[in-house]
Write the structure tokens for this entry.
Amino acid sequence: MTAKLLKVTPLGPLTFSKENNNTTNISVNNISKVPVLYKLQSTVWGKFKMRPRWGVLLPNEQTQCSITLNQGAELSKRGLDRVLLVCMMAPINSVDMDFTSAFWRHNICYDPMVEKHSFSFQQSKDSLKRQELLETATRPIAPIYWRLIGGSCVSALH
């Protein structure tokens, strides 16, 4: 496949921030002359909520997809969390839930006709600083090193 089907923005790592309820948006634009079937999928089950998860875009049609980091979930410190947008020419022009889910089960991501767009994530610097301040503020103020002497605890710093 030489010609791109979709233009997806923004490029680069997507940023989650507490101010936006840990939600980020991507714009998906069909730049081809044919209907395109797309699907969002994650490398980590249950970490992200994606809406809409899949659909059909007619030529020159555009949609917004939101990706939300689920409550209580944290991004991998090694940057392993990814969301993949896969797409290919649609065999139909409208969304039929049963047909579309069966279609994706039989046309897996390793098919060379499937166009792939991969997204990595980062936490906003303000959210990280705020989290560090909260962690520091809730740490107990106690000596770093304690030793046990005769059945009672004695601080090594006193």
Residues 125-138 form the longest helix (14 residues). Residues 133-139, 141-148 have pLDDT under 50 and may be disordered. The longest strand covers residues 115-123.
